[in-house]
Amino acid sequence: MKILFYMPHSDAAAWLHDFARALPEADLREWQPGDTEPADFAVVWRPPREMLAGREDLRAIFNLGAGVDAILGLEHEQPGTLPRSAQLIRLEDTGMALQMAEYVTHAVLRYLRRFDEYQTLQSERRWEVLDPHPRETFTVGVLGLGVLGTHVAQAVAAFGMPVRGYSRSARQIDGITTFAGEAQFDAFLDGVKVLANLLPHTPDTGDVLNTRTFSKLAKGAYLINVARGGHLVEQDLLEALASGQIAAATLDVFREEPLPPDHPFWQESRITITPHISALTLREESVAQVARKMTALMRGETVSGVVDIERGY
Ligand code: NAP
Ligand code: GLV
Questions:
Q1: According to the model, what pLDDT value does residue 80 have?
Q2: Alpha-carbon distance values, 196 to 80, 166, 168, 206, 225 (Å)
Q3: Where is the D-isomer specific 2-hydroxyacid dehydrogenase NAD-binding domain (predicted)?
Q4: Using DSSP, how many helices (H) and how many strands (E) does the chain show?
């Protein structure tokens, strides 16, 4: 089995070492520009077009992340880039669901318990008790009920606030009130106090976090975006903060990453910024999952996590 690896800004030697341990029979190499030698599998994160275009030898491309928007972007810009012979397979959880649950739960509890406001009071040396938010109306809405969104929704629900979830097809999840499809979008949003976005970025979901969406939420709602920057209309968020429709936001992803130093979000104290770290790709878990799937594919078996290219996730 021949495997090509490409992951910029990573410790490629460590990845290749772990793959070699998991698949001792494999012939592994880091892809370099100009390498067109045949391979069975490509393991990639944000690969250049040149690596994949015209490679009819590949059986599968393993994306070293949950989101496949970057790699599908190559196909949208230039149809035919992704080899027809190859399935595109994304990571499924590999430790990301727990990280997302930690990140989103932390933000939700910070807003519920008003820690940001207590921090401001502390900076002013003021000892003041704020009225608690009533838990029963502190409704959390989770956009996307896939591998990550489902775990996040259940983790938040454990704290007793009402939790809603929104997906494309109907889902049933214990303890979560679920909504599906565009026809139920407004009902999902109605009166939500914290909106957490875990949708994939597709032609259907781009710009979903906009003025209209914010207007359906409770006045003074909170926004958490851990999916993709392309989901958020940035100017709409700044206006919603100015009007008080949105009280504060926690953002992990941005249209331009790294966020440029002159971006207005840096100046806005009500926006918490993290550098796309809400759920990192963990090497050990990812190598184990990808190696298991490669072995299954070589045996002619089917595997989960295959991306529907038309649907975009
Ligand atoms: P997933 O398993 O594919 O789940 C996607 C969910 O979104 C599904 O519930 C799906 O509905 C729903 N959905 C897709 N299109 C929709 C639409 N048009 N309307 C309504 N619902 C729609 O994805 P995942 O593994 O949970 O990951 C979600 C995203 O998180 C990734 O695509 C990635 O962008 C982001 N992410 C970010 C980080 C980070 O560090 N910031 C890390 C990992 C992932 P169905 O259930 O009906 O299919
Ligand atoms: C990270 O953003 C991922 O999609 O895994």
A1: 92
A2: 34, 10, 16, 15, 6
A3: 107-278
A4: 10, 12
Query: Which position among 201, 228, 231, 283 bears the catalytic label?
Result: 228
- Predicted pLDDT at 137: 96
Check if the beta carbon of residue 44 is closer than 8 Å to that of residue 89: no
**Does CATH number 3.40.50.720 belong to domain 2-94+281-298?**
yes
d(CA 17, CA 26): 11
For ligand 2, atom 5, which residue shows the shortest CA distance? 65
Q: Is 228 a catalytic residue?
A: yes
- Written as six digits, the tokens of 119 are 């921090």
Give the pLDDT score at 128. 98
| DSSP tag of 267 | G
With a 6 Å cutoff on the Cβ, whether 67 touches ligand 2 is yes
Q: Is the peptide bond before 258 cis (omega within 30 degrees of 0)?
A: yes
Q: Is the CB of 278 under 6 A from ligand 1?
A: yes
pLDDT of residue 36: 94
- What is the CA(184)–ligand 2 centre distance, in A? 27
Return the CATH superfamily for domain 96-273. NAD(P)-binding Rossmann-like Domain (3.40.50.720)
Determine the pLDDT at residue 12: 97
User: Residue type for 235, please?
Assistant: Q
Decide: 202 in ligand 1 pocket, CB within 6 A. Answer: yes
96-273 has the same fold as 2-94+281-298:
yes
User: Can you give the pLDDT at residue 26?
Assistant: 98
Each domain of the chain, given as residue ranges in start order, spans 2-94+281-298, 96-273
The bound ligand whose nearest atom lies closest to the alpha carbon of 313 is: 1
Q: What is the mean pLDDT of each run of 10 residues along the chain (313 residues)?
A: 97 98 98 96 97 95 98 95 95 98 98 98 98 97 98 98 98 98 98 98 98 98 98 98 98 98 98 98 98 98 97 96
Give the pLDDT score at 279.
98
pLDDT given for residue 148 in this prediction: 98
The answer to whether the CB of 65 is under 6 A from ligand 2 is yes
Q: Is 133 a catalytic residue?
A: no
